[in-house]
Amino acid sequence: xxxxxxxxxxxxxxxxxxxxxxxxxxxxxxxxxxxxxxxxxxxxxxxxxxxxxxxxxxxxxxxxxxxxxxxxxxxxxxxxxxxxxxxxxxxxxxxxxxxxxxxxxxxxxxxxxx
Length: 114
Ligand code: AMP
Description:
Blueprint: H1 7-12, E1 20-23, E2 27-31, E3 39-45, H2 52-57, H3 61-77, E4 85-88, E5 104-108
Bound molecules: adenosine monophosphate.
Adenosine monophosphate (AMP) is lined by residues 7, 16, 18, 32-34, 42, 90, 96-99.
């Protein structure tokens, strides 16, 4: 069950500020408030999706594809497409997901540990 008052829903609605990297009518990319790498950006679709499975199962393939293609575009914008990067999406209790709105962590800008 999607919680419309989660922090990323509030960021999408403009109720909480964020340091924006890219936005259009379908998605928003912004810097993580507690970066775990030199570049740490969060990618979120504007659909009401709790996690990865919710997003891919309950949206048209075109919506899903569009979102992943936007990640490609932002990797270029951040200038980390060629140097390498890591995409991570946490889900649920064992995944240690903090914010229950599907998001992908984009990490890069340096040689990542672990
Ligand atoms: P997760 O554990 O995968 O749910 O990650 C949630 C991420 O959201 C964490 O890396 C937090 O640092 C980040 N975060 C929480 N609140 C904000 C915020 N207001 N602006 C930017 N990032 C945030």
